[in-house]
Amino acid sequence: MPQITNIIETFNKKVKAAVKKRMIILLRINSVLFIGTGVFGYLTTTNDTNLFVVLFFASGFLLLIGGILQLIFYLVKPEKPTFNYLYEKMINDINEDTSNDYTITYEAYVKDKEVIRRAGVFSRFVSKHFRFKLKFYNDNNKQITVYNSYLYSQTNNARVTYLDGYYIVIPSENNLKFQLRKKSKPRLKGTKFKRVKKDSDIRVYKEEDAKPVIKKDYVDLYYMKMHNPDVKKIIVAGIEDEIHVALEEENIPKKVTKLDIKEYTYLKETLLKQLRDINQFSKNL
Q1: Domain residue ranges of the chain, discontinuous segments joined by +
Q2: For the segment 243-274, what is each residue's pLDDT rounded down to a tens digit?
Q3: Is the pLDDT of residue 74 over 60?
Q4: How far apart are CA 274 and CA 107, in angstroms?
């Protein structure tokens, strides 16, 4: 318990320090803008030129924007303490627990962007933000890789989110390229897919002219997750030697802004429950 108390205290301090750092930077910028606005305001009263009038209003406008940003940065807490510190310590806590069956490796903010392209589940051009990557061995001694992922595309008018959840890579003896999904179509470059089934729950795509049938375990996983009320999105994809699962469900680890023992315990138990679930369904793939 003292170790957990120390983690909680340190995390809350890191959040406050990160907010303070951003506020100090903005305060310095706003101070310069405030002085500039005052100087240009004074010059507009002592000079006839319109240049100082323009500069006065421009600096005043920037000062207003800076004030709004300062308020936003104060209210919206930073994400990095959650994944650079909290979950790393939480994984260490889990690994040190002798009752836990897993030894988990943890990396925050990895750049493994090619993993998304490998199975063609999403467009190669989506923007990729990995909050963390976990690795552990399941009960069949397969090394499972789990990415806490935010995949999106941005236009001038809107942001489209493709996945805000887990992207899971599972070693498998699979040798068939296929995808099971509810919407959209495969995006695997260089591979032509044929849709072999479509209804309100599933679209089944298989590599064109491929003879093997899609293993029942893959279809069972899709339907099991699809009918789970906590699951918002499930895609199961196969490539040679791997199964990729895009899974968006409730309580995926997100930014934490304030922490106490009750919240820490809940976050830890939720993560462990999700990893046990991944361990269980990965054994059959």
Answers
A1: 2-75, 80-282
A2: 999 999 999 999 998 899 999 999 999 999 99
A3: no
A4: 18
